[in-house]
Amino acid sequence: MILNVPAGKTEWVDVQQLAGTSIPCAGGGSTHGWKVWLPPNASVTRYGMHQGAKMGEWSGNSGTAGGYCGAIVVENPNNFQVTVHLSWKMWCRGGC
Prior knowledge:
Elements: E1 2-5, E2 10-14, H1 15-19, E3 28-38, E4 44-50, E5 53-60, E6 62-67, E7 71-75, E8 82-92
Antiparallel strand pairs: 1-8, 2-7, 3-6, 3-8, 4-5, 4-7
C-alpha cells in the first residue's frame, strides 16, 4: 500500500478491513514494514493502535515491526509531504 502523508499529518490504516477478513485479536499476529520512497532520506514515526491504546513506536526511513491487530498509524513530522510504502502480513496463531 502507498500512503501520501501531508506535512505534519497522520494517516491510519485498518489492516483487518483491508485484509477483508476478521481474525480475532486474541488469536492473530502481524508483521509490518515501511519504507519512505519520497523524499528518499525522510523519516516517519510508525505505531500501532488497538482499542485506543498505542502499541509500540518506531521511527526512521524504513523498518519492520511486529504487532497485534487494529490500525497501523504513520505520522509525518516533516514540513513536507512524504510517500511511504507500507506492507503487512496477518496470520492466525491458533484459536481463530
